[in-house]
Design brief:
The complex is a heterodimer of chains A (385) and B (75).
Chain A: H1 19-34, E1 36-48, E2 54-59, E3 64-69, H2 71-74, E4 86-96, E5 101-111, H3 116-131, E6 149-154, H4 159-171, E7 176-181, H5 189-200, E8 208-213, H6 227-234, E9 240-244, H7 252-256, E10 259-260, H8 264-271, H9 275-296, H10 300-306, H11 313-336, H12 338-343, E11 348-350, E12 368-373, E13 376-381
Parallel strand pairs in A: 3-5, 6-7, 6-8, 8-9, 9-10
Antiparallel strand pairs in A: 1-2, 1-4, 2-3, 4-5, 11-12, 12-13
Chain B: H1 8-23, H2 29-52, E1 56-62, E2 68-72
Antiparallel strand pairs in B: 1-2
Helix pairs in contact in B: 1-2
Chain lengths: 385, 75
């Protein structure tokens, strides 16, 4: 606390204060009396200087308050406020002694409407991209059906990369993933993303690219809303799939990319065909090949046998099925064979002429006959009834 | 290396063409057999490539001079 103001201390010109003394005293009084506080008002006369400092006035119906926000405090914000915007400012009231001006040094700034400054920044960048035609649907390129090399721009350690690798390994292991590791949030993320995206052009034989990261807060995803990053995406010479955050977050990168995937896994699915599907298609083509040839002539059957070891899946399958059927039919035939019945312990009695003896009446005492068992014939004689 | 990088789109296109020709009535037996054999060989090669495939993951790093280095990515 400074000395209390004594109204009589300067009662005569002789004892007059200097300007500096007054403003210094005023500053101390304001700083100690008001301190740090939140203020609500409408922005007017906003001006950003080359130094990065912001100057603006907060006003309401009856009063105005000059504000300054230093570059070191405003650089964390996604966008500058615009005139007319309702905002909340947290700052310290002070007096700028050189000008004798009462003002607020803003430390934090929030827009009071939904989205606020983020929305402003987004709309501004989007307008610039639109103006340059980068959001034109006609720009969207088709993805390759059977990619061999896919560039992946994301964090080296994120779940996004793990998901992309897992999906690709399952669906399309033929593909080679070239990962360009980058920060995906925080200081330097924008620069690293731009650099990695620019590198893709220098890699040989890339068929398409995936850029993205897992979900996070609006602030975490912000690098993907950077106009610079969006332009870097647009400049990639191959089709780009963007997958940033969750389904609900649409970033500028998503808008500029050739395809927007809701998640990194979905991006990998969009980038790759399913090998099972391709195998099915190959099998189908194989079957058609076989049928096509069979249509030609009978003689092809012989040739088919000769190329049998090279028969394709469809044909192999059909042959295999045929084989199973044969085995099944063979089994049934076998079961019906009388020899098979004898195997189970039955015997067949035949007289000398070979006729089967079926009834008791046929066995007159002393009758010589032959008994056929599983492994041969034996001589037998009827003893009596 | 180049030959290994199967171009499945072109491969499928050629196979479709082979099948279409084989199915058309105006190929003679000799041609049909040649087409069939080519088709079978292409199918075999394609299936083999798929069966042998194992996803490769590499990381690309650029040093200050802008020189690219490609390493296997530890997983």
């Amino acid at each position: 606390m400074g000395e209390p103001i004594d109204l009589f201390a300067a009662a005569s010109p002789e004892g007059a204060w200097t300007v500096a003394e007054v403003t210094k005293r005023a500053r101390a009084t304001v700083e100690q009396g008001l301190g740090a506080l939140w203020v609500r008002g409408e922005v007017t006369n906003f001006k950003a200087y080359g130094s990065g400092h912001w100057y603006f006035t907060l006003r309401d119906a009856t009063a105005q308050l000059r504000c300054v926000m230093w570059a070191r405090d405003n650089r964390r914000l996604p966008a500058a406020p615009t005139d007319g915007l309702q905002i909340f400012v947290f700052g310290k009231a002070t007096v700028w002694e050189e000008r004798g001006e009462f003002r607020l040094t803003a430390l934090q700034l929030l827009a009071s409407d939904a989205g606020g400054l983020w929305q402003i920044a987004f709309e501004k960048a989007k307008a610039a991209l639109t103006k340059d035609g980068l959001l034109d649907p006609a720009r969207k390129r088709a993805l390759p059906l059977y990619p061999r090399r896919i560039a992946v721009v994301t964090s080296r350690d994120g779940a996004a990369l793990r998901d992309i690798i897992a999906v690709t390994a399952r669906r399309w292991p033929i593909a080679e993933l070239l990962v360009l590791p980058t920060k995906v949030q925080g200081d330097g993320a924008e620069d690293e993303l731009c650099a990695a995206l620019a590198l893709i052009a220098r890699l040989p034989d890339i068929d398409c690219a995936i850029v993205g990261r897992g979900g996070g807060s609006k602030e975490d995803l912000w690098a993907f809303n950077s106009e610079r990053v969006a332009r870097a995406v647009a400049a990639v010479p191959v089709p780009v799939i963007s997958a940033v955050g969750h389904e609900t977050d649409v970033t500028l990168c998503d808008l500029v990319a050739d395809l927007r995937a809701p998640t990194p896994s979905a991006a990998a699915e969009a980038a790759t065909p399913d090998q099972a599907e391709l195998l099915g298609r190959l099998g189908h083509l194989g079957a058609r090949l076989g049928r096509g040839l069979a249509l030609r002539t009978e003689r092809t059957v012989e040739r088919l046998a000769r190329t049998g070891d090279r028969l394709v899946a469809g044909m192999e399958l059909r042959l295999e099925r045929g084989g199973h059927r044969l085995a099944a039919v063979g089994g049934r035939l076998d079961a019906l064979s009388p020899l098979k019945v004898l195997d189970r312990g039955y015997a067949v009695a035949r007289d000398e002429s070979g006729s089967v003896l079926r009834r008791v009446a046929q066995f007159t005492p002393g009758l010589a006959f032959r008994l056929r068992v599983a492994d041969g014939d034996v001589a037998a004689r009827a003893e009596g009834r | 290396m180049k030959a290994e990088r199967a171009n499945f789109a072109a491969e499928l296109e050629r196979l479709e063409e082979i099948v279409r020709r084989l199915e058309s009535p105006d190929v003679d037996l000799d041609q049909a057999l040649k087409l069939f054999e080519e088709g079978v060989e292409r199918l075999r090669a394609a299936r083999q490539r798929l069966a042998a495939a194992e996803a490769k993951v590499k990381q690309v790093l650029a040093d200050e001079a802008g020189t690219l280095r490609v390493d296997d990515l530890d997983r």
